[in-house]
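Data deposition worksheet. Section B asks for the primary sequence of the deposited chain exactly as it was used as input, without tags or linkers unless they were present during the calculation. Section C holds the resulting structure in token form. Section D is free text for depositor observations; keep each observation to a single sentence. Incomplete worksheets are returned to the depositor.
Section A, Depositor: J.P.
Section B:
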Amino acid sequence: MRIGLRTAEAMVEGSEDYMCAEPEIAIGELDGPLGTALATLLGDQVKGHTRVFAILNCDVQVRPATLMVSKVTVSDGAYTNVLMGSVQAGIANGVLDCVREGIIDRTKANELGIIYSVWLDPSVTKVNEINHAELFDVHRAATVKVIKKALANEPSIDWLLENQEKVTHFYHDLGLKKGL
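Section C:
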């Protein structure tokens, strides 16, 4: 079955504010629009928003090819070390978990690509002692969750229409309550 192009967003929270992972992805066939977008992003680097592949370690890129794009302007070495360390490792392992669990068909691993918009709270650089193990686990879980949602087309349009008035946007609601 051809995937074409699918999208999703997910959120997984950890025990501390800086632990929140909120990826947004596009996943699809490398010989389609996703592949064109992935190659364009990789070749059109922007200062502060460097795009890198998810890797298990240097010289070990995961499949499907997963291009990480930071939602935050990266301008600090400490932030970069966490983003390109525990977070990148969590994302890479989450992608492979999806292949292992059959969420991504193993036979399609070389034909698919993922553009992964990654959130790492900038406050992480102000934490006295970062819990790298939990940060890794949160981003790994968020990766599995967002890929599952994308490939299952979740939430469905029926669910969205049924729940539109029941779901409130957290920051909008906060603004209404506190006048922010």
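Section D:
The helical segments are 33-43, 77-100, 132-151, 157-163, 170-178.
DSSP finds five helices and seven strands in the chain.
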